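Example protein as discussed:

>
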Amino acid sequence: MYGYLKGFRNVGGREKGMMAGSSTTSAVAMVACCAHHLTDVLPLIGLSLAATFLARYQEWFFAAGIVSNLFGVGLMVRNLKILKKI
């Protein structure tokens, strides 16, 4: 879907903002979804308090990742509908 949406980049003038919004949403979703892997590394570098915090709220990070992914998909679908009207 991202590649298809990127193909519209030379049409009109709103595409850069749309791509920036969907790219940012994807980046935030990836960070939120992968934050649980920090709990594996942080104790090794002496940050066990941060690892404990992340482990304690791991489910919330998963939920934030899923919600932001769904938001990103919805944003891309909306952008595709807008660009098809142009």
Notes: The two ends are 18 Å apart (CA to CA). Residues 14-85 form one domain. The chain has one domain: 14-85. The mean pLDDT is 70.
